[in-house]
Specification:
single chain; 524 residues; Rossmann fold; Luciferase, domain 3; five-stranded parallel β-sheet; 16 helices; globular
């Protein structure tokens, strides 16, 4: 898609990164040089390459360069703790990292002889590996800049691995979701047609590369040779600055989690019609409270709003266009109808096909469904199966989500079967947070629960049994070292012992009802 866009509109902006606009021709050339550098480092089709850098024009060139080398990209967030990075690097078998100088201070820890990283490509600034004790061969910007700007003589099949996204794992470690070119294109091509995207659109890119929402921003833009506008880090947390950015950049398409949409419109003091260029607002990743949505739609009266649903393992698999006006009788939004080629199944606890308005577990089949979990055949087999005994070849993904279909054929989400929750659009396994906290020598035991929150979907509360002298500062700092920021508990509460059920299991239902006030309550 990048090559086709560069051929059709070589001078058109492909990515706007702050004050810098990179054309499709420039992005293509940079990606080709990175692909050649990766090939010189021994990268072959099927390899996984780590992208360890901030989202930027450099990162997009690295992403496309990885694909052009026939490999799959594995996004590694620049602010993830070192233990998490090391786990993913080992799990994915990453031999080559593409990184930037802002992350150089961590290169020594990521390239020790104990890791599998043997080569590193620096895409900005000057790489001074000798002064950093980097145990890898480093290619500087100058090295990569000497590579050819022509494409490698490689071609990828639609079934080849394109990227691996690591999501929270219930057993204490993240799991790698393997997505193919077919998985991505099935959604992207549908979205381009359904949302009538053209080269005249300007797509905001809000989601980080390790979040599957970014797949739409990057590849839908390339499909129509439109520019993708990267959201500056110093703008995202501030509603007024965020709204001013969207207005100044003439954004026409916005896709993010509901809390970010709400921040964009409802908390920035905007008057109705202040964002006239914005024609399309897409949201996914968590439930959008209807009261908030009504207020946002009033501020952006000319845009179309769409609710998109789908776990990382399926990308987006259903969609629903929000009607105007959104009636006062509406209490929740449907997740809607399956996108083209996707088939939904709903099974009750006893394995029956759920009838109209009957609750069951949702299964998703079709071309958007992942290839499996990297290096974990058992876990893959547990979630990729045939939900319909009469069609044993129709493999689908078992989502763990509860859903029902109404008489009109629309699907409705009803929550999770397990302890997996959504907070600010991120899917989080509470068990992974517990596993990290339990590693601290001062924590005897702990349990983590989700507290419903109108703005963010859920807040994470941790109940801990700790040794004397343990305070909130130490435990919070430890959590930030071990977990991504979105998984650090919002509050901690020290208790003498965890409540148990009659079978000796932790009683999570009782924990969720406990008052977090009192002398032993901490809040970060």
């Amino acid at each position: 898609m990048l090559d086709e866009a560069a051929e059709r509109n070589p001078a058109a902006a492909a990515v706007v990164d702050g004050q810098r606009a990179v054309s499709y021709q420039e992005l293509q050339a940079a990606a080709n040089q990175i692909a050649h550098q990766l090939a010189r480092f021994g990268v072959v089709p099927g390899d996984r390459v780590g992208l360890y850098l901030e989202k930027s024009a450099h990162a997009l060139a690295a992403l496309y360069g990885t694909l052009k080398a026939g490999a799959a990209y594995v996004p590694l967030a620049a602010d993830w703790p070192i233990p998490r990075l090391l786990h993913i690097i080992g799990d994915a078998g990453i031999r080559v990292l593409i990184s930037g100088t802002d992350q150089a201070r961590n290169w020594p820890e990521l390239t020790t002889p104990k890791t599998c990283v043997t080569h590193l490509v620096c895409v900005d600034g000057a790489a001074r590996s000798a002064n950093l004790a980097v145990n890898a061969q480093v290619a500087s910007v100058a090295d990569t800049g000497r590579q050819p700007t022509s494409s490698l003589p490689l071609s990828s099949d639609s079934g080849d691995l394109a990227y691996v996204l690591y999501t929270s794992g219930s057993t204490g470690g993240p799991k790698g979701v393997m997505l193919t070119h077919r998985n991505a294109l099935s959604f992207v091509d549908w979205a381009v047609g359904e949302f009538r995207l053209t080269a005249a659109d300007r797509l905001a890119s809000h989601a980080p590369l390790h979040f599957d929402l970014s797949v739409f921003d990057l590849f839908a833009a390339a499909r129509v040779a439109a520019p993708v506008i990267l959201l500056p880090r110093d703008v995202a947390p501030f509603p007024a600055a965020l709204a001013a950015f969207v207005q100044a950049a003439n954004i026409t398409v916005w896709y993010s989690v509901p809390s970010a949409v709400n921040m964009l419109a409802a908390r920035a003091g905007l008057a109705p019609g202040s964002l006239p260029a914005l024609r399309l607002v897409l949201f996914a990743g968590e439930v959008f409270p209807v009261g908030q949505l009504r207020r946002v739609m009033a501020v952006i009266p000319d845009a179309e709003f769409y609710n998109l649903y789908g776990p990382t393992e399926t990308n987006v698999c259903t969609w629903y266009r929000v009607p105007r006006p959104l009636g006062e009788h509406v209490r929740s939004l449907p997740i809607g109808s399956p996108i083209d080629g996707v088939e939904l199944f709903c099974r009750t606890d006893d394995g029956r096909a759920a009838g109209p308005n009957e609750l069951g577990e949702l299964w998703v089949g079709g071309p958007t469904v992942m290839a499996g979990y990297l290096g974990d055949a058992a876990r893959t087999a547990a979630v990729l199966a045939a939900p319909d005994p009469a069609r044993p070849q129709a493999i689908a993904y078992r989502t763990g989500d509860l859903a029902s279909r109404d008489q009109g054929g629309l699907w409705h989400f009803a929550g999770r079967r397990d302890s997996q929750i959504k907070s600010r659009g991120y899917r989080i396994e509470l068990g992974e947070i517990e596993a990290a906290l339990n590693e601290h020598p001062g924590v005897a035991e702990c349990a983590v629960v989700a507290i419903p929150d109108e703005m963010f979907g859920n807040r994470i509360a941790a109940y801990v049994v700790v040794s004397d002298g343990m305070g909130p500062t130490e435990l919070t700092a430890y959590s930030r070292r071990m977990l991504p920021s979105y998984m650090v508990p919002w509050s901690f509460c020290a208790i003498p012992a965890l409540p148990r059920t009659s079978t000796g299991k932790v009683d999570y239902q009782e924990l969720a009802t406990l008052d977090q006030g009192g002398d032993r309550a901490w809040s970060r």
